[in-house]
Amino acid sequence: MIAPQDAGSEPADVAVIGAGVVGSAIARLLSGYQLDVTLLDARDDVGDGTSKANTAILHTGFDAAPGTLESRLVAEGYHLLKDYADRTGIPYEPTGAVLVAWDAEQLAALPGLREKAERNGYRETEIIDADEVYRRIPALGPGALGGLTVPDESIICTWTATLALATDAVNRGARLRRAHRVSSVRRESEYTVLHTNAGEVRARWVVNAAGLGSDTIDALFGFDRFQLHPRRGELLVYDKQARSLVDPIVLPVPSKLGKGVLISPTIYGNVMLGPTAEDREDREDSSTSADGFAFLRDKGERIMPALLDEEVTASYAGLRAASNLGDYLIEVDDRQRYAVAGGIRSTGLTSSMAVAEYLVDQLGKAGLRLTERTALPAPPRMPNIGEAGLRPYADAERIARDPEYGTVTCFCERVTRGEIRDALHSTIPPRDLGGLRRRTRAMNGRCQGFYCGATVTGMLAEAINEEPADAPANEEESR
Amino acid sequence: MTAARARLEPDVAIVGGGPAGLRAARELAPAVSGAVLVLDRESRAGGIPRHCAHTGFGIRDERRMFGGPAYATRMVRAAERAGAVLRSSAMVTGWSATGGLEVTSPDGLFEVHARAVVVATGARERPRSARMIPGDRADGVYTTGYLQNMVHLQERAVGRRAVIVGSELVSWSAVLTLRHAGCETVLMTSEQPRVEAYSLFSLPGKHLLRVPVRTSTRVTRIIGSPRVRAVEIEESPSGNRTTIPCDTVVLTGDWIPDNELFRSAGIALDPATRGPVVDTELRTDRPGLFAAGNVLHPVDTADIAALDGVQVAAGVLDYLAEQRRDGQHVRITADQPLRWIAPMIQRVGARPPARKRLLAWVDGYVPFPKVVARQGGRVIAQRRLPWPAVPGRVFRIPSEMLSGARPDGGEVRISLG
């Protein structure tokens, strides 16, 4: 079943390990040059690791540590990703944010945060008094003393962002190989051979963007320069009926323990409460816990008591890659023709495209020949799954052209049969229910499949059965 | 939004083609001059009975016993024969700025302006997330609705060993569905302390279906990825935890009304049912907007929902004939151990509720309940009922108990003495 040697395909110029948001951005950028690029991921889908379960905020970088690479790349990445979102239709909403101070110490910290934002190149923040805080967020619980506004913080669809970048990479000729977990590497004179559970992949250059696995992959190349540990963040997503309670993102004043618990609208029209921050050992364990729920409810009760009267639509846990370094590690080893983008923590969604530019620039300096391709395909136009934009169920012209867009299949999220069909036949089709849910929102709503679960899983099963069963996993996605 | 919405102007629009909506349509279609339009978002109307393969439907409304799908078909045909227009795959997505219903269907977008609107959208079971059951993100966790759609409508396989959470009437329906699908129910858990209290089904259920039931037990964790491998359960008051291997979990009962259209219309919701506040003629506080079925009382059996349809039709006809009901009224509320009561308002001169029964939900088992109605602290009626109050199904209270209420005497509180 497992091919001992991936004889069917040519060695790549560059193999990118990790099809999260950072790896996909790197693969997309590299495949804009005359390079043969392979994008590998251990999991069954792109964006199925740390990229899928973050707080989905497009950060201005106002609170980064000034002078770090992270600060610079978040600030640059903000504009790059926003511009790319405009071109591809990745949903985002410029909601703005308010940091709320609940005690004298937090209130006293606001001027420092404002100054820090300016050192990070962000000058739009403003300190507001308690009355103004309540004017902006009337549902806030009692006791707020003041706040700091960050008008350009935005919410964005992290699922579509990764998918757009990966789709763009594939359209530009990159070979995507999902379910290829790299277990060891072997150096040959001209190539590095990556051993995976689904065969070998050869490449002249290797880029490690393996997220939570990036320190492990780095060690396979003989390095011992950073360690990651998984930090579990649990989140509660409240019913859309709560959406009117929250307009700007409600941020806590950051402490040494992290950014704390926030309340944010989601791009799908819900309200999110979280995350927790708990250091864990297991890098695969994304389970939720009774303690986490209790902690979040306790926090939520104080920040916005009215929120807790609403139904919980979803709960999930994401693992962030917490690094022992205080900054991103983006370096190229020209001797091994190997590059790493490691320690990219939760800010990586915002910084992804800037990380890609920085890393590819480094690769060029290290000898990778970067010759621009002419006639690149246009960036993909992604289906809008954001609540704010026009969606197919409300688009008369679209329904007139194809009645499948008028057949609402998932009632709670108003996902039509046409959208599910499109996702199942897209450039990077989902292989499991999670993948279909991330592409369409189907089954993500308040009933969690009570009404549509059987229909949606049926459509998925049918589409998967259509695929030839005997195709080797590592050829299926070759172009 | 794109403008092009075709405008429809029936006399009555009914949102939801389950037993309540279909029965209301059947009553109204011959009685009004204009059209009666039923909008159902499923590909086929009929509601929940479509995927309940067991019998027991139609007893109190049709005076005969049917299986769920046959009952659904009968209700659809009867509404159509009566002259109602049924549109399936037609989902009401909200209210337009001018108060019309916005509808998406394969035939395009519509805006429906009716003289009267009946919302009969039913109720759904709370899923795992709303119950806040922690653990792994596992496939194989269903609500009964999801399970029955899978097995009876899509004819798909589920697992081999199931744990059923809850022991309401619907939980035994889940046992039957699992058995049909070749899946053994290895355990049913209930947070209630007494097994004999669950339902009429539990004794025959326990013996005929051989389902082990654990009382005072809740599921504390779901284990397994990508598919469920086990659940962790906790007994109270000991707090002892055990792991039960299984590959399927069915979360049953714990209903919440599909109340979105009421909430987005700014209609007051009852804090206990989470459905709209209605009077005995099933009027909401917005003139011309009515509710019927399990969106009001989550949940009663299909025949009772259908009889709500008869009740609401009478109220709609009065409204269309411009008979006002704006006299004095009293609010009816439930006190412990009753969780909720419906309908919630009695008006002077209005009809009594359907079947002259108030519907209530109880959190503990009471074998010979004494119902007490108080107004302003004064007992206005008390009566011992010959039927028990049982958690997991509706408890019925004769509405004559309200006859002593003074229209100006304020709220009437109903409890068990």
Automatic annotation (TrEMBL), chain A:
SUPFAM superfamilies: FAD-linked reductases, C-terminal domain, FAD/NAD(P)-binding domain. It comes from the Bacteria. This is Glycerol-3-phosphate dehydrogenase. Residues 13-361 form the FAD dependent oxidoreductase domain. InterPro entries: BFD-like_2Fe2S-bd_dom, BFD-like_2Fe2S-bd_dom_sf, FAD-dep_OxRdtase, FAD/NAD-bd_sf, G3P_Oxidase/Oxidoreductase. Residues 410-462 form the BFD-like [2Fe-2S]-binding domain. It comes from Tamaricihabitans halophyticus. CDD domains: GlpA-like_Fer2_BFD-like (cd19946).
TrEMBL record, chain B:
PANTHER family: ANAEROBIC GLYCEROL-3-PHOSPHATE DEHYDROGENASE SUBUNIT B (PTHR42949). It comes from Tamaricihabitans halophyticus. Keywords: Oxidoreductase. GO terms for molecular function: oxidoreductase activity. The keyword Ribosomal protein does not apply. The keyword Secreted does not apply. It holds the Pfam family Pyr_redox_2. Residues 11-306 form the FAD/NAD(P)-binding domain. It comes from the Bacteria. InterPro entries: FAD/NAD-bd_sf (IPR036188), FAD/NAD-binding_dom (IPR023753), Metab_Enz_Cyan_OpOx_G3PDH (IPR051691). The lineage of its organism: Bacteria, Bacillati, Actinomycetota, Actinomycetes, Pseudonocardiales. This is Thioredoxin reductase.
